[in-house]
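Me: I hope this is not a bother. Any chance you could explain this protein sequence and its structure tokens? It all follows right here:
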Amino acid sequence: MAGTMTKEDVVRQIAEHDVKFIRLWFTDVLGFLKSLAMTPRELEGSLEEGTGFDGSSIEGFARIQESDMVAMPDPSTFAILPNMAEHERTAFMFCDILRPDGEPYDGDPRYALKRILAKAADMGYTMYVGPELEFFYFKNSTETDVLDRGGYFDLTSLDLSTSVRRETVSALEQVGIEVEYAHHECGPSQHEIDLRYKEALRMADSVMTYRLLVKEVADRNGIHATFMPKPMYGQAGSGMHVHQSLFKGEHNAFFDPNDPYHMTSEGKHYVAGLLHYAREMCLVTNQWVNSYKRLVPGYEAPIYCCWARRNRSALVRVPMYKPGKEQATRVEMRNPDPAANPYLAFAVMLAAGLKGIEKRMELPSEATDNIYEMSAKERHGAGIRSLPGDIEGAIIAFENSGFMRETLGEHIFQYLIRNKRAEWDAYRALVTSWEIDRYLEIL
């Protein structure tokens, strides 16, 4: 996805590559990819006027009486899907969702991110993001049968998952998504493919494409890939560590060569904003009941609101891979998971950081100890709060947040509360096998 394609470029590329179908993609509020397909004959009209559809059946979109929506393709996102037979060669573009009058639709997650990016631009900033998405390969979609017993950075050269991962990297590169590296993660059959950092809107589009291609390549090889945050008890969960920085023109607004942490005051205020609003953002960065099975002590997933440079139990890290190098200076938020909606996740993190800068929030002291080994009294004395322990706590923190209402807009804000409360009600009414095993005989 080159980012500079025009409508004319798209039409020319379709003809030159003999594209048979074009998918118009957009994302619902929960982060599921939606698609409209059309032939090249219909595309020129869509590029000019958009394509109408019924939004009443899309999660978080319009009610029946307001159902008419328009998907407006963004030519700069055009790419041709890899490994398609010549008779079914397919391209795709991401769309902005508009009302019939041409105004942006406030339930569109892509628009929610664009609004916050516009605010950042008004302050002189461009946000760059580099996420690390972890996932598992299983033998099928109904059981957690792993393909390997490898660990972190293990070379499982004779394993099917290694070749599938390599094929996925190739597919990503073919659609213009640059990959920094790929490797085996901590858990059995757990993998990670890291994307090279880019501007936040393009990266959110890339994350949606990444998740689709990871699953499609796995499916072609007869296995199942999942971004479920915690699919196996007793094993590591999957995270989406989000590396982020703000640039002013060509210069990194977080970099100060003379500071002990190589961080400007803006960078420190940004981190303070992330920590301040972390609890309120959890319903977006960790939006599923299962997300909170990952956010427990004993694993690398952080649960305490603090920051550090080397300490991986901290919520926010200032990585020290290349200390003193301007382009490498960034902050890493470690609690988001790969099942989050990337548009909304990037939007709330950026908004939190900007609030930190606007209010000149003071950065707390660095957490140099392992926070998991501190007592509750010690954490309280250090001003270290915990993330919500379950999705009910996340709902409460979110619902009471004027910041979240302001950032996401009333439509998305209210929808998430309704949807996640229904998910929690359904979950807590379920009688699990754990309860049967524990209580049936003794009670």
